[in-house]
Structures are given as structure tokens and as C-alpha cells.
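To fix ideas, we reproduce below a protein record of this kind.
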Amino acid sequence: MENSNKKGRRIALYIILAVLGIALLAMICYLLKDNKKVLRFLDVLINSGGYVKVLEGLRNTATIAILGLVIGIVIGTLIATVRVIPKYKLLPRVLNGICSFYVGFFRGTPMVVQLLLFYYVMLPLMGINMSGVNVSILVFGLNSGAYISEIMRAGIQSVDGGQMEAGRAVGLSFPTTMLNIVIPQAVKNILPTLGNEFITLIKETSVVSFVGAADLYVAFNMIGSNSYEFMVPYLVMAMIYIVIIMLITLGIKLMERGLKKSDRRN
């Protein structure tokens, strides 16, 4: 039964990929037939310096997503640790309430709202002046931390409870046991989900233009405006995103394969 379900999902995936491939091929054939669109795009991209904007947008997209993920992992790990520690004393209960509010806020509001709120309201009220890229890194990190906290909490809870008991039995403190024994095993369990979070951050960078940050969307939108033709720029932009996501997916699979090999050696 399980094999038949896997076979059915594989067939459905092949059908979807075939449809997408046919649609992309038809689009390319249409553009080659009307090559004036392509020539206008190449003129703005190369002769008018549009490639500089594309490289800047690609750099900002990667910077926001990568640093946002790093900040999210740090915050998410701290929150997950607070959420799983025993609540016998007052301080853990207070911290748990704060973390619950934090997670609820960032998971309950859209990314665009968070960007606008920080850029136009919260940071100006605190007298802090930050560029659009830096605000985007901050907000993406805070947003990612809320999601990663739940991912990390599930990963920690998936680790056998005997690991914590063994660490405490040999004299290690709770934080040391969590940091050196439990969390590394949890990260191994949640690696695919962390990869999905990174992919989500890459795609969501398309909204940072709301706070004046120049990403890939801004770059190709500028090229479309200057060439008076948006079909080719947007198609190329979509292809770049697809290539980025495919490279990330490949990297995650290679990391998973390496971790599985280490498990077999042990």
C-alpha cells in the first residue's frame, strides 16, 4: 500500500513537472518568435547597466535570507529551550509567556505588515535609523525565529528523553546538556524543515521593496519599466528564483546524505 502511494505521488510530480516544462517551452518559443521583446530586454540589461541592478538585487536577496535564517536559528533555539524547560519556578513561566506572545505575534501577522511596522513605526519611535536592507534582515530574522522555535521545539521533543537524563546523570548542567547533546541531535532531525524555512525566506524577500530595499524584484521591475516590456524580465526573474531554490534543495539533500553516512558509521 505504501509503495503504491509513493508511486502515485511520483507520477503526480512527473505530470506537474511535464506541464510546467511544456508551458515554459511554449513561452520560450513565443519569445523567440517575437524576438523584439528579447532584444529590448537585453539592451536594457547589458547596454543600459541593468545587470548591475540585478547583481545588487541578488546580493541583497541572499544577504537578507541568509542572515535572517541565522538570526532565526539563534532566536528559535533560545525560545524552544525556554518552552521545553520545566515550569516549576516563576521565572520559566514568565519567560514562557513572553515567548508565547512573541511567537503568536510574528506568526499571526503578514511579513509585509511587520516590515512596515518596524520601518515606519517602531524603529522611528525608538530613534533608530536603519536602511531598508538592515530592517529587512532584522524583521526576517525575528519572523523566522518564531517559526524555527516551533520547528526546534518539535526536534528537541523528538530526541529520546534518556539523552537528557544521561547528560544530567554524569554531572552536566541542564544548559550544557541541552547545548551539547540534545540540540545537535534535534538539528539533525529537523534539517529538511530548516531547509524549507530557508527557501521560504528566499521567496519572501520579494516584499522588501515596501521598505525601499532593492531585491531581485526591484531590479527586474526597473528593467521592465525601462524596456516597456515586462514579460521577459519577469520570466527571467522566475527562472533565477527556480535555480536558486534548486541549488538550495540540492545542498540540503547532500547534507542529509552526509549525516546519514555518519549515522551508519556509528
Summary: Residues 54-265 form a domain with the MetI-like fold fold (CATH 1.10.3720.10).
